[in-house]
Amino acid sequence: MPARLKIHELYLSIQGESSHAGRPCTFVRLTGCQMRCVWCDSEHAFYEGSWRTVDELVAEVARLGCPLVEVTGGEPLLQPAVHALMTRLCDAGHEVLLETGGGLDITRVDPRVKRIVDVKCPGSGEADNNRWANLADLRPGDELKFVLAGREDYEWARRVVAERALARRCPIHFSPVWGALDPAELAAWILADRLPVRLGLQLHKLLWGAEARGV
Asked: Is 20 exposed, middle or buried, given 0-12, 13-18 or 19+ CB atoms closer than 10 A?
């Protein structure tokens, strides 16, 4: 049978996070996730979805006519056929981003793909499931994201960044949990410590609200 994936949604929107924030982007959101972060904003992607072949997905992305494509979830790396999809998208000339929760091996990802890797803080409830070996495989074009629920997460993330010299590896984003940590407060902490990180805000939520889907 042709390679296929369970897809939660596929849509065109504005990229809301990472160094690519603000750019038009096609999102391919895969169904399923092995983590259960307490602040998760995409629980609807855990189970809902329909099966699509890689050929169908590549054709749908082409129809939307946007050069930037993000493969996300859930956790997209749970589905083995995602590697074929990302390679096909790269072959078609797309700039491809992968948003991954950081708990699975990223070494198999096509080297043309820019990987945005979460590092789960204690406040997520999933810090024990970080795959630390991924940090050794970071390459140019990759990015790291820490989602912070409060001061404890901030102090933990600051230590991780310093101890592992991560700022030398790739851009690092500190993002506040929506509705739990005031972005201005996080900005003040970053400024006070002169941290070599970027304040990350979820632009799509600022534009359309926290509950909107398909945007």
From this structure: middle
Number of domains observed in the structure of the chain: 1
Q: Is position 214 within any domain?
A: no
CB 114 within 8 A of CB 100: no
Each of the 215 residues of the chain gets a pLDDT tens digit; together they read 789 999 999 999 999 999 999 999 999 999 999 999 998 877 888 888 999 999 999 999 999 999 999 999 999 999 999 999 999 999 999 999 999 999 999 999 999 999 999 999 999 999 999 999 999 999 989 999 999 999 999 999 999 999 999 999 999 999 999 888 999 999 999 999 999 999 999 887 787 776 666 76
Asked if residue 104 belongs to a domain, the reply is yes
CA distance 166 to 174: 13
Q: Using CA atoms, how far apart are residues 136 and 9, in angstroms rounded to an integer?
A: 32
Residue 144, in any domain of the structure: yes
Position 147 in a domain: yes
- Which range of residues forms the domain containing residue 139? 4-208
| Rg of the Cα atoms in the chain | 17
Q: Yes or no: say if 89 and 65 are a contact pair by the CB < 8 Å rule.
A: no
